[in-house]
Amino acid sequence: MRLTVQEVLAIKQTVTLVLGDESAKVTLFGSRLDDGAKGGDIDLLINTCVKQRNCSSMASKIMAGLQVKLGDQHIDVLLMDSATEVLPVHEHAMQQGIVLWLKKTFLG
């Protein structure tokens, strides 16, 4: 995994602040899982139990907050709540990704 502990903590803080959900599950997937690679965007799947009025809008807010904290890098956020239809991209992220944290358990 090519994220630093500081980057993981910044993601946790941003997701919690924007969603108001400390128990959100954040999964990293995509090219940042490959320790031998360089570059690449940060792909995140976020599962929240807090019902969202507009998942796309909230995902954009999370991306903007992360760009402020992590610098100008490409970040993709998929946000799911209980009403979100599970699409193939969500299934891929859940199968291939690694959970950065679940509730108060951190990886880093």
Low-confidence stretches: none
The overall pLDDT average reads 88
Structural class label: alpha+beta
Order of helices and strands: HEEHEHEE
Total beta strands: 5
Biggest sheet, strands in spatial order?
Answer: 3-2-1-4-5
Chain oligomer state: single chain
Query: What's the number of helices?
Result: 3
Shape estimate: globular
Tell me the fraction of residues in β-strands, as a range.
15-25%
Helix content: 25-40%
Q: In whole angstroms, how far apart are the ends?
A: 9 Å
| Rg estimate, integer Å | 13 Å
Major sheet description? 5 strands, mixed
Describe the structure.
The longest helix is centred in the middle third of the chain and has 16 residues, at 55-70. Helix 1 packs antiparallel against helix 2. The mean pLDDT is 88. A five-stranded mixed sheet has the order 3-2-1-4-5, sandwiched between helices. The chain contains three helices and five strands, in the order H-E-E-H-E-H-E-E. With 108 residues, the protein is α+β, with helices and mostly antiparallel strands. 37% of the residues lie in helices and 22% in strands.
